[in-house]
Structures are given as C-alpha cells and as structure tokens.
Amino acid sequence: MAEPTESKLLALRKWREVVEKVSDLIKEMYPEVEVYLIGGAAEGRLTVLSDIDVAVVIRDRQIDRAKMLANIWEAMEEILPIWYPIEIHILTRDEFRRLHGKKVKLS
User: Fold this and answer.
1) Residues in contact with 40: Cβ distance below 8 Å, sequence separation at least 6, in sequence order
2) Is residue 95 within 8 Å of residue 36, measured between CB atoms?
3) What's the total number of domains in the chain?
4) What CATH number should be reported for the domain holding residue 18?
5) I need a labelling partner for 78 at 20 to 30 A (CA). Which of 14, 27, 29, 50 fits?
6) Cα–Cα distance, 34 to 103 (Å, whole number)
7) Own/partner pairs for 61-69, CB < 8 Å, 24+ apart?
8) How far out from the chain centre does Cα 12 lie?
C-alpha cells in the first residue's frame, strides 16, 4: 500500500489536468470571473507538502463569497476526490492586484 505522501505526490503530478478541469468548471458556473493559478504551482516550486492555489477574481464586491466558494466545492466533488490538495481563493480585483508572486491566467 502506498504511503500517504506517495499518494499525494502522485496526485500532484496531475495538477495541470486538475487545474484545467477546475478552471473550466468555475467558468461554467460563473462566466464573469477570471481564474488564475497562483502560488507554488504557478512559480514551478511544488513539493509533496504543496497544495494547488487557484484564484477566482470577482468584479462584484457584494457577492456572497462563502456561498460562491461552497458552490464551487460542491461542484468540484463531482470531478475531484475530496482530499485533493487544492485551495480556492475568491478575491476582488484589488485584492488580486496586491498578491505577490507569479499569476498564470487560466480563463
């Protein structure tokens, strides 16, 4: 049986496929948003301890972010195992601009 870190590392090797699926899913649900890869994956520095960070950039500051995030997670359960190391960040344009590090536009 594979060790937990080995399983996570194997799952992380497919991060590009996963990010593409997640980005497509988010754009299908919320066509008005922009989706970016940020963090270690964007900067090419993934390790076995990494997660995949995806930024969802919203225009409307009044949107219920908690509800939006819950909807995205619920939809992701159809395409990803619940334990997959991915984190979704819902940010306004101003918040996104203040982020440091590389940002890769997905959609």
Assistant:
1) 46, 47, 50, 53
2) no
3) 1
4) 3.30.460.10
5) 50
6) 12
7) 61/92, 65/90, 68/30
8) 13
Show the domain range for 86. Answer: 4-105
- Rounded to whole angstroms, the Cα distance separating 65 from 61 reads 9
Does an H or E element contain 103, and which? strand 103-105
| Stated length of the chain | 107
Provide the residue-wise pLDDT of the chain in tens; the chain has 107 residues: 444 555 767 777 888 999 999 999 999 999 999 999 999 999 998 877 889 999 999 998 889 999 999 999 999 999 998 888 999 999 999 999 999 999 999 98
The whole model's pTM is what? 0.88
